[in-house]
Design goal:
Layout: H1 2-13, H2 29-42, E1 47-49, E2 53-59, E3 71-80, E4 86-89, H3 92-98, E5 110-114, H4 121-127, E6 135-140, H5 153-159, E7 166-176, H6 179-194, E8 200-202, E9 205-211, E10 224-233, E11 238-241, H7 244-249, E12 262-265, E13 274-275, E14 278-279, H8 282-289, E15 296-301, E16 322-329
Antiparallel strand pairs: 1-2, 2-6, 3-4, 3-5, 3-7, 6-7, 8-9, 9-15, 10-11, 10-12, 10-16, 12-13, 13-14, 15-16
Length: 337
């Protein structure tokens, strides 16, 4: 089929080959002709939009907020090639159908920053104008998979090379102009539901004591303590823990990890707090700073105190508020510090 499409594409492009003359072809000329032939064969009713994407399916919603520059869009998506092979998805159902579902991964809405040059051109052309609750499927040509911006389709064709076309299936869940405020609102709802409505101690940070300390001694000095902890997303998904049972129950257990209390070196400066001699995220350090000897508590904080705009691996998505339950415990070796 692909060879027949290439033949059709070459005829469509009017490409002539002779033994005597070898003409230079514009970058992506054959690729463009092949894509047009593929569209003609598989989706003859597809509409062309933007700088050259093809809309295969469009399911608009009601009067929800529209995606426009600048904003943040929470979306679910699946990406596949022209042969239907899926390369990436945020949908657990699709991952299960592929037999690639991993219980430890985060599946669900992802935050796309829709700002100038923050998305590749093809995705930007696809998502702009979509509204909350709407779905769209589009073919994004390889030459539109760039963060550079040009004035015409011809410039993209001539300047962007070596990318393959991809089919994006996207559903817009929510649109916001202020991703920080969205996180604050989300944490307020979490606090009301799970933390008895505790107020933030300062912007973007909450702390709730679960069990009282044995003394009022502060730990803001160069001292060593030991803690157990569990970190999770606001949807309840656990991404890290020192408790083996919790790790196994939440499908993040690793035989290469030792599950036991870890050593924390406190400091007069919260930015210098170390966990097993390693740096820790700001929100984790701030939680420890609120605690006293043998106390147990929960710290919750927005992404500015966590993994910011990028998240961490497959477990923590971008712009994610985090929750850590921490308990200060005795030295597991039974030695005095």
């Amino acid at each position: 089929m692909k060879s027949r499409l290439y033949a059709l594409a070459l005829l469509t492009a009017g490409t002539l080959v002779s033994c005597a003359v070898k003409e230079e072809t514009q970058a992506n000329e054959n690729e463009k002709a092949y894509l047009e032939a593929w569209i003609h064969t598989h989706h003859p009713d597809a509409g062309k939009a933007g700088m050259g994407i093809y809309i295969l399916d469009d399911e608009p919603a009601g009067s929800g907020k529209a995606v426009e520059l600048p904003c943040y869009a929470r979306v679910t998506y699946t990406i596949r090639d022209l042969d239907g092979n899926i390369s990436s998805t945020s949908d657990s159902t699709v991952a299960k159908q592929l037999g690639e579902y991993d219980k430890s991964y985060y599946y669900g809405p992802r935050v796309w920053s829709v700002h100038e040059n923050s998305l590749n051109k093809g995705i930007e052309d696809m998502i702009i104008g979509m509204t909350e609750g709407s779905s769209r499927e589009a073919v994004i040509p390889g030459w539109l998979q760039t963060y550079n911006r040009y004035d015409s389709e011809e410039e993209y064709l001539s300047k962007v090379k070596d990318n393959s076309p991809q089919i994006y299936s996207v559903k817009v869940i929510e649109v916001t102009d202020d991703i920080i405020q969205w996180q604050i609102d989300t944490m307020e709802r979490y606090s009301a539901k799970y933390l008895d409505g505790v107020d933030s101690l300062f912007y973007g940070f909450y702390y709730k004591q679960l069990s009282a300390p044995v003394s009022d001694e502060t730990l803001h000095t160069d001292t060593t303590i030991y803690i157990n902890y569990t970190g999770k997303l606001l949807n309840g998904q656990v991404f890290d823990t020192t408790d083996e049972r919790i790790a196994k129950d939440n499908n993040i257990y690793s035989s290469s990890k030792t599950y036991a209390p870890v050593e924390v070196t406190m400091s007069a400066d919260s930015t210098e707090v170390k966990l097993d001699d390693s740096d820790i995220i700001t929100g984790f350090a701030k939680t420890l700073w609120e605690m006293k000897p043998m106390e147990k508590g929960i710290g919750m904080f927005y992404s500015e105190y966590g993994y910011r705009t990028s998240g961490s691996g497959s477990l923590i998505p971008e712009y994610a508020p985090l929750v850590f339950e921490i308990e200060i415990v005795e030295n597991p070796d039974g030695e005095e510090e």
